[in-house]
Fold each of these.
Amino acid sequence: MSRQRRYWSRNELALRVPRPLWWPALSITFLCLFTLFAPAGFITGMNLYFLLLAGIGWLATRQPLDATLMRAVAPFVVAIVLGLVAGIGADRYLYFKDAWYYSNPAVIIAVGFVLGRLLNDVQRGLRAFVVGGTLVALYHLIPFAIYPDLLLRQATQIRGLVGTGYYATSLVVILLVGWWGRWRSALGLSPALASLALLLCSTSTVLSFSRTMAMVVVLGGLAMGGFFARREWLRVGLFIAALMLGLGALQATVDTDSVQAKRSFIGKLARSAEELSVQDYTTRLDINANWRGYETSRGLDSWAQAGLAKQVFGQGFGAQVDLGLFQNLSRDSRAAVRFIPIFHNGYVYLLVKTGVVGVLLYLGALVWMYHIGRRTAGGRSDDPATLQGRALQGCVVVLAVSTWVVAGAFNKFDMFSFLMLIGFLLAARTPGTRRAP
């Protein structure tokens, strides 16, 4: 009797197809959904846990570090070192909080990248983002199903009762519109399920009454249509001109000073440019009405008065900006503050903490990631590589614009799904590093 063989030959191992991993896709869905419930620190801990597992696997394979991943996170690492050194001696809590804010986008991009490399299946990964965002939409819409009379209230009242919405749903709208007609082949979703997901996420996005989210959908949709694939500087200039013209026309037809306008979505949309206008307002009424422009002005003043060295390298982590008055920034009427460590404008946040160098590092990272997507964005619309490149472009453009109004990459939760998709698409659009035989 011949003894049964208990090992694989080298040729058999070479021909053996490994079983695809299921947990990376599940992790994408889990992380997109759990940003609704879990504290920010818990999500960061989960992300670091995934990176720890990936690091252990990398040490076991003895392969060199992935050059694409290192290139993506390097600007954030340099900025973190800069902020840590410049901020020595600052309040310890604010010091480490800023370090966390800076490291968070790099960690999320790295997690998306690692999960993309492990999954090695773009279709399953994109489907995971769609499923996660759709579950988020269901969560957001539950109050409207239980209390339909909410729909009769004004926009500001709805946002105060139900919440301001979740950007993961707008990402699903962008993906499903971008892959329109290819839902089964590109996303592994039946037309019925994809249509249901699009309906739920579109409804959630509309009921968020968010101007920024509306802009995110517009920018993402333009990117998926090839708007940024070529001659983008000319097209962006025309788009900005058309946007400003539209806002100007809207402002001319709406009484933005009326109480009704301040409570409605149309009225807030008409006031968008005014709210973002950088001015050092003098009256409490103007400051409250145009808070984002006022805090940006105070941040720029702080940077301008900091001295040349701190203008270039920043005031460091833990630095705060004097508002010039006590302002209530929470629902607790007794919690008024005069000094603030963070801003709605992420570029001012960068400028104060890490100076011109920090802003240039961040912009350099965005430009590089955008360029990775642009390499294939100009191809045929039915080419998977083309759509993946355009999706990467769209995510980067969304990040660049949202950093101006809602802190973008430095927002604890809002841009989580976009950051993770950026990492995932970077893994999809770049070759992996292999150890020489």
Amino acid sequence: MIIKEVKLSSGFLFIKETLNIITNEGKINLEEKFDSKLVQELNIKLKDFEINSAEDFTKLKEKLKDLDNEKYLIIEKAIINNIKNFWSFFDPTITQVPRPMCVVYEKEKGIKKFIVFSLNANNFDAVITSCRKVTDFLKKKDISKLKDEDILMLIKEGIDKEHELVNFELRIGVVLDNFENGNYIYNGYELDENKQFEFVSKLIEKYSVVYVENPFNETNLEVYKKLNNKFKSICLICLNSKINEYSEGINKKCFNTLIAKYLNISSFKTEALFFKDQGLNTIVEQNPDIIDVVVGLGIPLIKIEDDKNVYQISRKIKNISDEIVKFKSKK
């Protein structure tokens, strides 16, 4: 793709002006508001700019480094949505698409989110359907006053019913993230760090939990390291940071799984490939706008918190799966 011109279209009566990016492959229309001075600057910077690989987005970010991130993402999104088989910019040999991790129940204290996912399914929508059935199963039960361990047993019961119908395995994960004022808060009681470690270990050993996110205060990486050393071969020990970069924890081997944060294609690609080089499992949170990037970088899991974006994500995954088949057949 070669950008030939960036300009504002002429508004007529009640039709507002739109931003147009003219390329050698056609016109890209953006309805978001850009003032004329900014559009002139964009035209100067982007005229004759070529986008033929993922690396070109690093150059694009550099060219538009003075543009605020919100507007930059609008332009970036518009461009990638108009590139055919964009996933192939990252890895044209890719053969698999990610699998969903679905939150099937959440609450305010203790284990805050219960997750169901599959590590061996080859059908994205089939896993979504199974997770919804587990959610529906839970809704039929009065679980608001149950202990966390009893909720896990109910989820396992719902999963066992699904296993009778599907040809893939469903697994259980949890998000704790329950550190407050020096302790870990549960409904009616609190745990200190040692007791929290014992409880999380029990979840993995007794209830076969294979994904644990934010089990401890993220400023105490040593306890993460202790848990990772004990269970890294059978459980995804994940930090989803709110305040820190991951570099210190990576160097100390404190976890085997991380949530990659999306700011733009350039930084996301750098981060995801760095995680991969370090032998870490990578998860991305739901965002329909970046599915091509997620597929192309070989990120295996997408965490889905609610149904808001499920349809868009599922449709994109299906379309990309079809594109991969067609792409391979032409080789």
Amino acid sequence: MSQVKGQFVRSGVGAGGAYSEMYLEGAKAEEVAEMFTAAPFDRFFGTASTRDRQVHAGGQTAKENPMGAVTGHMDLMETTIRETGRDARGVDIGSSFSGFLNGGARLRIEQEADGVRVTEQGTRVRPDFTKVPVAGAVQAAFEANVPVAGAMARAMREAGEGVMGTVFEGVHALMAARSPERMAQSIQQRRKTGRW
């Protein structure tokens, strides 16, 4: 089989959330789909760290920190990645996550003549500040029990979560730019050893 080469095409954040596009020359759609649904997260998103990862029919679930390889692991969310559909041209992958970070993403893995195009679209990230230890519980209690000021505190928290969500989406798009070469290496390893 040919050597796999990863190429970054584009990424950013728009009105619909984060998006990215990459090309894996020499890859097959089936093996790229398997990477997302069965390989450890750091094999396709190099900055991620996971704990309690479980592979199940059609996908996998793990407690994740998307920047854990850089910052040290602390669970920020529980992520499920699964196949959501397929057709003659490729495979659709969906992910959802909840915890301190909440949201999801959609990937389209499409076979082309000499490789695979991976397109991510609509990635949304929203933090939940009430999940911050101690301070989050105080915030939630204040919002629930203090008339008027509690409602104002909730509105301010939600506005802050919205702003920080856009920041997290931007970081995600930036890190996606570093992923194609990592993916190519992972696919090569799988071909050589039979293991992710």
